[in-house]
Amino acid sequence: MSSSAQRPAGGPGARPTLEEVAALAGVGRGTVSRVINGSPRVSERARAAVERAVAELGYVPNRAARTLVTSRTDAIALVVPEAETRLFSEPYFADIISGVSAELADTDMQLLLVLVRDQRERERLSAYLRAQRVDGVLLVAVHRDDPLPGVLEDLGIPAVLAGRRGEHEPLGYVAADNAGGARMAVRHLLRRGCQRIATITGPLDMEGAQARLAGYREALAEQDMAFREELVGYADFTERGGRAAMTELLARAPELDAVFCASDVMAAGALQVLRAAGRRVPQDVALVGFDDSIVARHTDPPLTSVRQPIEGMGRLMARQLLDEIAEPGRARRQQVLATELVVRESA
Protein backbone atom coordinates (compact mmCIF):
# COMPACT_ATOMS: atom_id res chain seq x y z
CA MET A 1 0.00 0.00 0.00
CA SER A 2 1.37 3.44 -0.87
CA SER A 3 2.13 6.03 1.79
CA SER A 4 -0.64 8.30 0.49
CA ALA A 5 -3.21 5.56 0.97
CA GLN A 6 -2.11 5.18 4.62
CA ARG A 7 -2.72 8.82 5.43
CA PRO A 8 -5.90 9.39 7.45
CA ALA A 9 -8.73 11.17 5.66
CA GLY A 10 -8.21 14.89 5.90
CA GLY A 11 -4.61 14.49 7.13
CA PRO A 12 -1.87 16.94 6.17
CA GLY A 13 -1.28 16.85 2.42
CA ALA A 14 -4.12 14.40 1.78
CA ARG A 15 -6.21 14.99 -1.32
CA PRO A 16 -9.92 15.20 -0.38
CA THR A 17 -11.93 12.34 -1.85
CA LEU A 18 -15.38 12.13 -3.39
CA GLU A 19 -16.48 10.04 -0.40
CA GLU A 20 -15.37 12.74 2.05
CA VAL A 21 -17.34 15.36 0.12
CA ALA A 22 -20.41 13.08 0.20
CA ALA A 23 -20.05 12.48 3.97
CA LEU A 24 -19.68 16.17 4.78
CA ALA A 25 -22.60 17.12 2.52
CA GLY A 26 -24.80 14.34 3.90
CA VAL A 27 -25.56 12.91 0.45
CA GLY A 28 -24.63 9.86 -1.57
CA ARG A 29 -21.52 9.54 -3.72
CA GLY A 30 -23.67 9.52 -6.87
CA THR A 31 -25.21 12.86 -5.99
CA VAL A 32 -21.76 14.41 -5.59
CA SER A 33 -20.74 12.96 -8.95
CA ARG A 34 -23.82 14.43 -10.64
CA VAL A 35 -23.18 17.88 -9.19
CA ILE A 36 -19.53 17.83 -10.27
CA ASN A 37 -20.45 16.59 -13.77
CA GLY A 38 -23.05 19.31 -14.25
CA SER A 39 -26.16 17.14 -14.26
CA PRO A 40 -29.38 19.07 -13.59
CA ARG A 41 -30.92 15.99 -11.93
CA VAL A 42 -30.04 17.24 -8.45
CA SER A 43 -32.20 19.24 -6.05
CA GLU A 44 -31.09 22.77 -5.29
CA ARG A 45 -30.71 21.83 -1.62
CA ALA A 46 -28.42 18.90 -2.37
CA ARG A 47 -26.45 20.92 -4.92
CA ALA A 48 -25.85 23.69 -2.37
CA ALA A 49 -24.74 21.16 0.27
CA VAL A 50 -22.27 19.55 -2.13
CA GLU A 51 -20.90 22.91 -3.25
CA ARG A 52 -20.35 23.95 0.38
CA ALA A 53 -18.55 20.67 1.12
CA VAL A 54 -16.39 21.02 -1.99
CA ALA A 55 -15.40 24.54 -0.96
CA GLU A 56 -14.72 23.58 2.66
CA LEU A 57 -12.57 20.58 1.78
CA GLY A 58 -10.92 22.16 -1.24
CA TYR A 59 -11.92 19.18 -3.36
CA VAL A 60 -10.65 19.24 -6.96
CA PRO A 61 -11.86 16.50 -9.38
CA ASN A 62 -9.04 14.44 -10.83
CA ARG A 63 -10.02 14.93 -14.46
CA ALA A 64 -7.18 12.89 -15.91
CA ALA A 65 -7.97 9.89 -13.70
CA ARG A 66 -11.67 10.21 -14.41
CA THR A 67 -11.03 10.19 -18.16
CA LEU A 68 -8.92 7.01 -17.88
CA VAL A 69 -11.53 5.21 -15.79
CA THR A 70 -14.70 6.35 -17.49
CA SER A 71 -13.47 7.24 -21.01
CA ARG A 72 -15.05 10.65 -20.49
CA THR A 73 -13.79 13.45 -22.70
CA ASP A 74 -15.82 16.35 -21.25
CA ALA A 75 -16.81 17.31 -24.79
CA ILE A 76 -20.18 17.44 -26.57
CA ALA A 77 -20.62 17.73 -30.33
CA LEU A 78 -23.39 19.90 -31.75
CA VAL A 79 -23.87 18.50 -35.25
CA VAL A 80 -25.60 20.51 -37.99
CA PRO A 81 -26.03 18.54 -41.24
CA GLU A 82 -26.40 21.69 -43.35
CA ALA A 83 -24.22 24.05 -45.36
CA GLU A 84 -22.66 26.99 -43.53
CA THR A 85 -24.82 29.37 -45.59
CA ARG A 86 -27.92 28.10 -43.75
CA LEU A 87 -26.16 28.05 -40.39
CA PHE A 88 -25.28 31.74 -40.59
CA SER A 89 -28.38 33.01 -42.41
CA GLU A 90 -31.15 31.43 -40.32
CA PRO A 91 -31.75 32.67 -36.75
CA TYR A 92 -33.02 29.23 -35.72
CA PHE A 93 -29.49 27.81 -35.55
CA ALA A 94 -28.10 30.78 -33.63
CA ASP A 95 -30.89 30.48 -31.05
CA ILE A 96 -30.34 26.74 -30.60
CA ILE A 97 -26.58 27.28 -30.14
CA SER A 98 -27.26 30.11 -27.67
CA GLY A 99 -29.51 27.88 -25.57
CA VAL A 100 -27.08 24.95 -25.58
CA SER A 101 -24.14 27.21 -24.66
CA ALA A 102 -26.06 28.81 -21.82
CA GLU A 103 -26.95 25.42 -20.32
CA LEU A 104 -23.35 24.20 -20.54
CA ALA A 105 -21.84 27.43 -19.19
CA ASP A 106 -21.64 26.21 -15.59
CA THR A 107 -20.27 22.77 -16.46
CA ASP A 108 -16.85 21.54 -17.56
CA MET A 109 -18.20 20.43 -20.93
CA GLN A 110 -16.62 21.80 -24.11
CA LEU A 111 -19.00 22.39 -27.03
CA LEU A 112 -17.78 21.39 -30.49
CA LEU A 113 -19.71 22.70 -33.51
CA VAL A 114 -19.61 20.24 -36.41
CA LEU A 115 -21.01 20.96 -39.89
CA VAL A 116 -21.73 17.93 -42.06
CA ARG A 117 -22.22 19.04 -45.65
CA ASP A 118 -21.49 15.94 -47.72
CA GLN A 119 -20.80 12.21 -47.57
CA ARG A 120 -17.07 12.71 -46.97
CA GLU A 121 -17.69 14.86 -43.91
CA ARG A 122 -20.32 12.38 -42.70
CA GLU A 123 -17.81 9.54 -42.88
CA ARG A 124 -15.19 11.65 -41.10
CA LEU A 125 -17.64 12.40 -38.30
CA SER A 126 -18.58 8.72 -37.98
CA ALA A 127 -14.90 7.82 -37.55
CA TYR A 128 -14.50 10.60 -34.98
CA LEU A 129 -17.47 9.30 -33.00
CA ARG A 130 -16.23 5.69 -33.13
CA ALA A 131 -12.95 6.90 -31.61
CA GLN A 132 -14.98 8.08 -28.59
CA ARG A 133 -13.80 11.68 -28.92
CA VAL A 134 -17.00 13.09 -27.40
CA ASP A 135 -19.29 12.12 -24.53
CA GLY A 136 -22.51 12.91 -26.38
CA VAL A 137 -24.07 14.45 -29.47
CA LEU A 138 -26.75 17.06 -30.10
CA LEU A 139 -28.13 16.75 -33.64
CA VAL A 140 -29.95 19.68 -35.23
CA ALA A 141 -31.96 19.81 -38.50
CA VAL A 142 -32.71 16.11 -38.77
CA HIS A 143 -33.66 14.78 -42.21
CA ARG A 144 -35.57 11.53 -42.62
CA ASP A 145 -32.81 9.65 -44.48
CA ASP A 146 -29.88 11.03 -42.46
CA PRO A 147 -27.74 8.02 -41.39
CA LEU A 148 -26.14 9.85 -38.43
CA PRO A 149 -28.87 9.05 -35.87
CA GLY A 150 -28.49 5.37 -36.78
CA VAL A 151 -24.73 5.59 -36.29
CA LEU A 152 -25.28 7.14 -32.85
CA GLU A 153 -27.71 4.33 -31.95
CA ASP A 154 -25.27 1.63 -33.10
CA LEU A 155 -22.40 3.16 -31.13
CA GLY A 156 -24.50 3.67 -28.02
CA ILE A 157 -23.41 7.32 -27.77
CA PRO A 158 -25.77 9.51 -25.72
CA ALA A 159 -27.64 11.69 -28.21
CA VAL A 160 -30.52 14.15 -28.29
CA LEU A 161 -32.18 15.43 -31.47
CA ALA A 162 -33.76 18.79 -32.20
CA GLY A 163 -36.96 17.40 -33.68
CA ARG A 164 -37.41 13.81 -34.76
CA ARG A 165 -37.28 11.70 -37.90
CA GLY A 166 -40.76 10.29 -37.50
CA GLU A 167 -43.49 9.21 -35.13
CA HIS A 168 -41.50 6.24 -33.79
CA GLU A 169 -38.19 8.00 -33.12
CA PRO A 170 -36.11 5.80 -30.75
CA LEU A 171 -33.64 8.52 -29.71
CA GLY A 172 -34.34 11.26 -27.21
CA TYR A 173 -35.50 14.55 -28.69
CA VAL A 174 -36.87 18.01 -27.99
CA ALA A 175 -39.36 19.36 -30.52
CA ALA A 176 -41.95 22.08 -30.87
CA ASP A 177 -45.64 21.34 -31.46
CA ASN A 178 -45.31 21.99 -35.18
CA ALA A 179 -48.74 20.77 -36.23
CA GLY A 180 -50.45 22.64 -33.40
CA GLY A 181 -48.63 25.85 -34.28
CA ALA A 182 -49.64 25.58 -37.93
CA ARG A 183 -53.28 24.98 -36.95
CA MET A 184 -53.21 28.13 -34.81
CA ALA A 185 -51.82 30.17 -37.68
CA VAL A 186 -54.39 29.01 -40.24
CA ARG A 187 -57.29 29.33 -37.79
CA HIS A 188 -56.23 32.93 -37.23
CA LEU A 189 -56.28 33.60 -40.97
CA LEU A 190 -59.71 31.98 -41.27
CA ARG A 191 -61.03 34.17 -38.44
CA ARG A 192 -59.82 37.20 -40.39
CA GLY A 193 -62.10 36.07 -43.21
CA CYS A 194 -59.41 34.70 -45.53
CA GLN A 195 -60.81 32.10 -47.93
CA ARG A 196 -57.96 31.22 -50.30
CA ILE A 197 -55.09 30.44 -47.94
CA ALA A 198 -51.86 29.20 -49.49
CA THR A 199 -48.89 27.66 -47.70
CA ILE A 200 -45.15 27.51 -48.33
CA THR A 201 -43.62 24.37 -46.85
CA GLY A 202 -40.17 23.43 -45.63
CA PRO A 203 -38.37 20.37 -47.05
CA LEU A 204 -40.75 17.45 -46.63
CA ASP A 205 -37.96 15.01 -45.76
CA MET A 206 -38.01 16.76 -42.37
CA GLU A 207 -40.72 15.76 -39.90
CA GLY A 208 -41.17 19.34 -38.70
CA ALA A 209 -42.02 20.55 -42.19
CA GLN A 210 -44.42 17.63 -42.70
CA ALA A 211 -46.14 18.41 -39.40
CA ARG A 212 -46.62 22.08 -40.31
CA LEU A 213 -48.18 21.07 -43.62
CA ALA A 214 -50.41 18.60 -41.76
CA GLY A 215 -51.52 21.34 -39.34
CA TYR A 216 -52.41 23.57 -42.29
CA ARG A 217 -54.56 20.84 -43.81
CA GLU A 218 -56.22 20.04 -40.47
CA ALA A 219 -57.24 23.68 -39.89
CA LEU A 220 -58.83 23.83 -43.34
CA ALA A 221 -60.64 20.53 -42.76
CA GLU A 222 -62.11 21.88 -39.51
CA GLN A 223 -63.98 24.43 -41.62
CA ASP A 224 -64.88 21.90 -44.35
CA MET A 225 -62.56 23.69 -46.77
CA ALA A 226 -60.97 21.56 -49.45
CA PHE A 227 -57.20 21.12 -49.62
CA ARG A 228 -56.05 22.55 -52.96
CA GLU A 229 -52.71 21.38 -54.30
CA GLU A 230 -52.29 24.56 -56.35
CA LEU A 231 -52.20 26.54 -53.09
CA VAL A 232 -49.11 24.67 -51.85
CA GLY A 233 -45.63 25.97 -52.62
CA TYR A 234 -42.82 23.55 -51.82
CA ALA A 235 -39.59 25.12 -50.55
CA ASP A 236 -36.60 24.54 -48.29
CA PHE A 237 -36.71 26.93 -45.29
CA THR A 238 -34.52 29.50 -47.14
CA GLU A 239 -35.35 33.05 -48.20
CA ARG A 240 -34.58 32.16 -51.80
CA GLY A 241 -36.93 29.17 -51.58
CA GLY A 242 -39.66 31.41 -50.15
CA ARG A 243 -39.31 33.83 -53.07
CA ALA A 244 -39.44 31.05 -55.66
CA ALA A 245 -42.47 29.38 -54.06
CA MET A 246 -44.35 32.68 -53.74
CA THR A 247 -43.70 33.47 -57.40
CA GLU A 248 -45.12 30.09 -58.41
CA LEU A 249 -48.15 30.48 -56.14
CA LEU A 250 -49.07 33.85 -57.63
CA ALA A 251 -48.81 32.39 -61.12
CA ARG A 252 -51.01 29.38 -60.25
CA ALA A 253 -53.48 31.02 -57.88
CA PRO A 254 -53.47 34.81 -58.30
CA GLU A 255 -56.69 35.02 -56.27
CA LEU A 256 -54.99 33.87 -53.03
CA ASP A 257 -55.65 36.14 -50.05
CA ALA A 258 -53.34 34.68 -47.38
CA VAL A 259 -50.12 32.69 -47.06
CA PHE A 260 -48.90 30.59 -44.14
CA CYS A 261 -45.13 30.10 -44.41
CA ALA A 262 -43.40 27.31 -42.50
CA SER A 263 -40.58 29.67 -41.46
CA ASP A 264 -40.03 33.40 -40.96
CA VAL A 265 -37.10 33.38 -43.37
CA MET A 266 -39.32 32.03 -46.17
CA ALA A 267 -42.02 34.54 -45.22
CA ALA A 268 -39.50 37.36 -45.67
CA GLY A 269 -38.78 36.07 -49.18
CA ALA A 270 -42.51 35.77 -49.93
CA LEU A 271 -43.05 39.34 -48.72
CA GLN A 272 -40.53 40.65 -51.27
CA VAL A 273 -42.38 38.91 -54.11
CA LEU A 274 -45.80 40.12 -52.96
CA ARG A 275 -44.56 43.70 -52.76
CA ALA A 276 -42.97 43.46 -56.23
CA ALA A 277 -46.29 42.13 -57.57
CA GLY A 278 -48.17 45.12 -56.12
CA ARG A 279 -49.92 43.06 -53.43
CA ARG A 280 -50.34 44.93 -50.14
CA VAL A 281 -49.75 43.06 -46.88
CA PRO A 282 -52.09 42.57 -45.07
CA GLN A 283 -54.78 44.44 -47.05
CA ASP A 284 -54.57 42.19 -50.14
CA VAL A 285 -52.68 39.19 -48.77
CA ALA A 286 -52.29 38.31 -45.09
CA LEU A 287 -48.97 36.68 -44.22
CA VAL A 288 -47.93 34.45 -41.30
CA GLY A 289 -44.55 32.90 -40.56
CA PHE A 290 -43.21 30.32 -38.13
CA ASP A 291 -40.42 30.62 -35.48
CA ASP A 292 -41.03 34.19 -34.23
CA SER A 293 -37.36 34.88 -34.92
CA ILE A 294 -35.68 38.27 -35.11
CA VAL A 295 -36.69 38.29 -38.79
CA ALA A 296 -40.37 38.55 -37.83
CA ARG A 297 -39.80 41.76 -35.88
CA HIS A 298 -37.83 43.49 -38.62
CA THR A 299 -39.92 42.95 -41.76
CA ASP A 300 -42.16 45.73 -43.07
CA PRO A 301 -44.84 45.21 -41.95
CA PRO A 302 -43.75 43.19 -38.87
CA LEU A 303 -44.63 39.53 -39.28
CA THR A 304 -47.32 37.59 -37.46
CA SER A 305 -45.57 34.36 -36.53
CA VAL A 306 -45.85 31.12 -34.57
CA ARG A 307 -43.41 31.27 -31.68
CA GLN A 308 -41.49 28.14 -30.82
CA PRO A 309 -39.14 28.47 -27.81
CA ILE A 310 -35.97 27.80 -29.79
CA GLU A 311 -33.43 28.92 -27.19
CA GLY A 312 -35.37 26.99 -24.54
CA MET A 313 -35.23 23.94 -26.79
CA GLY A 314 -31.45 24.26 -26.93
CA ARG A 315 -31.25 24.47 -23.14
CA LEU A 316 -33.50 21.46 -22.69
CA MET A 317 -31.55 19.41 -25.24
CA ALA A 318 -28.29 20.11 -23.40
CA ARG A 319 -29.84 19.31 -20.01
CA GLN A 320 -31.28 16.08 -21.33
CA LEU A 321 -27.95 15.05 -22.85
CA LEU A 322 -26.07 15.78 -19.61
CA ASP A 323 -28.51 13.47 -17.83
CA GLU A 324 -27.89 10.67 -20.36
CA ILE A 325 -24.13 11.09 -19.98
CA ALA A 326 -24.28 11.12 -16.16
CA GLU A 327 -26.58 8.09 -16.01
CA PRO A 328 -25.83 5.68 -18.89
CA GLY A 329 -28.75 3.44 -19.77
CA ARG A 330 -31.41 5.78 -18.41
CA ALA A 331 -34.68 6.03 -20.34
CA ARG A 332 -34.53 8.53 -23.18
CA ARG A 333 -36.85 11.51 -22.88
CA GLN A 334 -38.93 12.78 -25.79
CA GLN A 335 -40.36 16.23 -25.17
CA VAL A 336 -42.73 18.38 -27.23
CA LEU A 337 -42.95 22.06 -26.32
CA ALA A 338 -46.01 24.27 -26.81
CA THR A 339 -46.12 26.99 -29.46
CA GLU A 340 -48.05 30.28 -29.48
CA LEU A 341 -49.20 32.76 -32.09
CA VAL A 342 -47.71 36.26 -31.94
CA VAL A 343 -49.96 38.63 -33.90
CA ARG A 344 -48.37 41.59 -35.70
CA GLU A 345 -49.31 43.84 -38.60
CA SER A 346 -48.80 41.32 -41.44
CA ALA A 347 -51.97 39.48 -40.38
TrEMBL record:
Can the keyword Transcription be found in this entry's annotation?
yes
InterPro entries recorded: HTH_LacI (IPR000843), LacI/GalR-like_sensor (IPR046335), Lambda_DNA-bd_dom_sf (IPR010982), Peripla_BP_I (IPR028082)
**Where in this chain does the record put each HTH lacI-type domain?**
16-70
Instruction: Identify a single GO molecular function assigned to this protein.
Output: DNA-binding transcription factor activity
**Entry keywords, A to Z:** DNA-binding, Transcription, Transcription regulation
> What top-level branch of life does the organism fall under?
Bacteria
Note the CDD domains from the entry: HTH_LacI (cd01392), PBP1_LacI_sugar_binding-like (cd06267)
Q: Which Pfam family, giving just one, matches this sequence?
A: Peripla_BP_3
Transmembrane stretches, by residue range?
A: none
Name this polypeptide is given: LacI family transcriptional regulator
Q: Which species is this record about?
A: Kitasatospora viridis
Classification from the root reads: Bacteria, Bacillati, Actinomycetota, Actinomycetes, Kitasatosporales
